[in-house]
Specification:
11 strands, 21% strand, D-Maltodextrin-Binding Protein, domain 2, 3 domains, seven-stranded mixed beta sheet, 298 residues, elongated, Arc Repressor Mutant, subunit A, two-stranded antiparallel ribbon, alpha/beta
């Protein structure tokens, strides 16, 4: 039983895909398959079910999986301590982030962390908040940054910064009459552009609508668009209005192409959170990144 074989086994269990596991380990699929075959031969048991299209672990595979995680964790911790002793850190950290953290919050943190640990490779994945939370629970991701919390006993959320949302409209003749806020009677007539279901921005606005005894069905929907930059351009072009983070429209506010307005009796503020699994130990590098993020956050 070799470390590389265990890493291969854990990657297949994590991604439930030979191709994704091979890609994550920079291996070819034949090499990956050979590692698993040799591991099964050395242990004298079948670890992975191959009888159906969906990959799953056998009972023996489930037993090994927990020990494999511990073995690889100890290996990584030992390597980290030796790197610390030598003053040279190497490794890989993967962070899954929702739109606003990915585009407007994390870049400066990643740059600062990279300056401290230049040989650490960073990967930033973009997903909706609910997809990140699902990924943490299924152990597809170890660290995530999201714009909404989930009530789940297996998750830990650490607040890193506050965010303010606004009703964003084009700065043209149609909306010149609005200086600071838009009355509800006008709001329900405006064409709205919304993010995809599952985004933290959309969840907060839905909750705020509910508090004011309204729902999406009371609004005029123009489009559903996943990309914030595309939404901004569509607003500038006059397609409609949207609820966006003020962090995302700083440049447009400066050049006068967009306006940020409030809605009466609607508080659109939220926190962004670093989330990880409560019962899964983070790697030493992941812990260092968590500590860095918490120390340098607002």
């Amino acid at each position: 039983m070799e470390f590389r074989q265990l890493e291969t086994f854990v990657a297949i269990a994590k991604y439930k895909s030979y191709s994704k596991a091979a890609e994550s380990l920079f291996l070819t699929q034949p090499t990956l398959s050979n590692h698993i075959i040799n591991l099964e031969k050395s242990l004298g048991t079948t670890l992975i079910n191959r009888s159906n299209k969906q990959i799953s672990l056998t009972p023996a595979g489930k037993i090994l999986y927990e020990f494999a995680l511990q073995i690889l964790q100890v290996k990584e911790s030992a390597g980290f301590k030796l790197d610390e002793y030598r003053g040279h850190f190497v490794g890989h950290i993967e962070i899954a982030a929702s739109t606003i953290p990915e585009q407007y919050i994390l870049p400066s943190f990643l740059t600062g962390f990279k300056e401290l640990f230049p040989d650490v490779i960073l990967t930033l994945r973009h997903l909706a908040s609910d997809k990140i939370i699902d990924g943490i629970l299924t152990e597809e991701y170890n660290l995530g940054v999201v714009g909404s919390k989930a009530s789940h006993g297996h998750l830990l959320f650490h607040s890193i910064t506050e965010d303010e949302l606004a009703l964003v409209v084009p700065n043209n003749e149609t909306y010149q009459q609005y200086e600071r806020e838009v009355p509800w009677s006008d709001l329900v007539k405006m064409p709205f552009i919304f993010r995809e279901q599952g985004s933290g921005t959309r969840k907060l606005f839905e909750a705020s609508l509910k508090k004011n005894h309204l729902s999406f069905r009371d609004l005029k929907i123009a489009a559903y668009i996943e990309n914030t930059e595309v939404i901004k351009q569509c607003i500038v072009d006059g397609m409609g209005v949207s609820i966006l983070s003020k962090r995302a429209i700083q440049q447009e506010l400066l050049n006068g192409s967009l306006k940020a307005l409030s809605i009466p009796d609607m508080v659109l503020t939220r926190n962004f959170y670093l989330v990880h699994h409560k019962y899964r130990t983070l790697s030493p590098l992941e812990l260092r990144f968590k500590e860095y993020l918490m120390e340098h956050s607002e």
